[in-house]
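Researcher: I need the complex structure. Ligand is PRP. Inputs:
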Amino acid sequence: MKQCTMNKMTKRVQFEEGDVKVSGAIERVLLDEEAIAARVGELAAQISADYADAEDLVLVGVLKGAFIFLADLARHLTVPHHVDFIALSSYNRGAVSTGAVRLIMDTRASVTGRHVLIVEDIVDTGYTLDYLLRNFRARKPASLRACVLLSKPECRQIEVPIDYLGFEIPDVWVVGYGLDYADRFRTLPYIGALKREVYEE
Ligand code: PRP
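Model: Output:
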């Protein structure tokens, strides 16, 4: 199986304060604040148009990675909507995702009969989104779509439909704007590529 630079922790890393200086850990800025904001605005406009007649739209953010994307996207929507969240845990074997996903926190409210838009930060192998779509389809929503900020097509192990996509990116470990490495760098305002030495140490 092809190995990929998945945005997942495959080993435990202990960070001491100042262990990795943010500026020194970033190889390059992939998407700056302006590029992200412009694309999020476009996605929100498209979603607002598509759901103009939807009675009950619920955005389901996938924690933790999607929290910033969802917050920005939701505030640009011009249609009424609700916000809910789920949290998942995925299992990895060595450096390779097994594809097994476990739901560790469910939505607060039922989604049956509602228009569900899953909001994800990134699709790598596709296992997580595939699990989510199967899981939510079983709940009998009025409709089910996915809005994803980043996609790494080179990493795909299973094909998944993405209805709204921000950017396709190369196979690099990205952090910032919600995305992490060892739960760090999530609140960087831009999306940066992590230096290989940081995650291959
Ligand atoms: C990341 C990301 C997606 C998933 C995509 O979550 O937020 O949910 O991996 O990977 P896949 O397409 O290979 O399944 P992660 O497990 O890193 O958790 P986090 O969002 O809490 O950082």
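Model: Summary of the prediction. Helices lie at 22-25, 33-50, 67-76, 127-137, 196-199.
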